[in-house]
Amino acid sequence: MCSQSLPVRVSTGVKGLDDIIEGGLIPRRVYLVTGPPGSGKTTLSIQFLLQGAREGERGLYVSLIQKPEDVIMDMTRYDPSIVPYVRNRKILLYDLGPILWRESSKAPTWRSVLSRIKEVAEAAKITRLVIDPLTAIGFPDTFPAEKRTELARFIRKIEELGITAILVDEMTEMDRYREEHYLVSGIIMMHYFMHESRMIRAIQVLKMRGTNHDTDMKMMKFSKDGIVVFNRSPFEGMDEHGHGEGDGE
Ligand SMILES: Nc1ncnc2c1ncn2[C@@H]1O[C@H](COP(=O)(O)OP(=O)(O)OP(=O)(O)O)[C@@H](O)[C@H]1O
Ligand SMILES: [Mg+2]
What we know:
The chain is α/β, with parallel strands linked by helices and about 250 residues long. It has a single domain (about 20-230), classed as Rossmann fold (3-Layer(aba) Sandwich), CATH 3.40.50.300. It is built from seven helices and nine strands. The chain has a nine-stranded mixed sheet, with helices on both faces. Helix 5 runs parallel beside helix 6. It is globular, with a radius of gyration of 18 Å. Bound molecules: adenosine-5'-triphosphate and magnesium ion.
């Protein structure tokens, strides 16, 4: 499809992140958020749904491992504003893991996940979707080409449903890219690593189709507004305690 004007953007709900990706995500596309354990993937995804809810949209959080209620409870520890949106069903929680485990002892497939999401998406008219974590979706190794086709079909279907989606990817191998990395429209990488005996949090836009962005690591912090991104190096302005100027915002 060809459009002469620049595409409208949807806000990620993460302060500072929209600014480094030309205002937000291009809607009706599928994005990947990847990173090591505890790097903030789930928090960012929930902020994305919360932003939609604040703007009157309806979002769906599909959980494949953790109980979604626990995810929300953990979030409310820092930001209770999500609770009313869950209560009034602006954010829907879908504990899909156990449902699919009952159907088969094998890991859920793209096909099975898609058919369930499609049902809810059409009935509830959702415009934002999070699948957490994508890594729980298995695939028989017998036909690698088939994985690509299934995944491409999955992405195409989500886009056709008019949904902007974040797939949460657990980074298992730092130096190996998989099919999903090539097929999605954008990849946001969250970093959490040791540097000079301090843990550093950072965020990096690795790929964002149709967007002018740099690929540097950016400083990231948890604040009372959840994750906040600063357009500067994560190593900048650190004092001897490892705290930067933006702390406490
Ligand atoms: N508001 C906050 N202030 C300080 N720390 C926070 C805040 N919110 C979350 N955290 C910390 O950030 C960590 C990461 O949160 P999150 O669950 O989003 O990460 P994740 O990347 O999804 O992890 P996992 O791979 O285990 O699912 C938590 O373990 C918690 O310690
Ligand atoms: Mg998580």
